[in-house]
Amino acid sequence: MEPILRYIHDPLCGWCYAVAPLVSALAERFPDLEVRLHGGGLFEGRRVDARHVERIRASDARIAAVSGQPFGAAYRHGLLESGEMRLDSPAVSAAILAVEALAPDRALSMLEAVQRAHYREGRRVADPDVLGELAAQEGVVREDFAGAFAAGRERVRSHIADTRRRMARLGARGFPTLVLERHGQQEVLDHAGFYARPEAFVEALRPRLPA
Prior knowledge:
The chain is α+β, with helices and mostly antiparallel strands.
């Protein structure tokens, strides 16, 4: 089905959290637009220690200022200061792949749920139990998710490798990258000027998208 919005992201990337309202607005306004998620492996099971916290805080402050996205107290004063935050992009991407396999129309919502749980609620989203809870909130049966998550863990490396190859072909420099595909042609969208302005982003793309 065309057109397709290819959303190249990392589920634990702060700037992907910043762009989430833009992607959500496009998906809501253009229900015939197929959104395909291409997850990256930005963080490989990395535990965040005290020396990285201030760097993260500075980045979060910039993201909040540019995008208006909120960072909850449970994240800022709880998770960040706990010394126990672990960033594991492959685990989270595997959970999104699991939801995509079981309920394809809920994959984007699962990504957004992970972002909210991390940045607003300060939850440990690399924890399989937390991921299972988030999937259940998306309407996925916990037992079904467990099996699909195991399968997702098996194929997430190839998924990430495919994302990186796609980025190399496009000349994409990082996350997030939004690509509009129409009639076999791919266009990298300039979204940087639209943070905090999802309606303007929708209007800018309206001529290229189905009514």
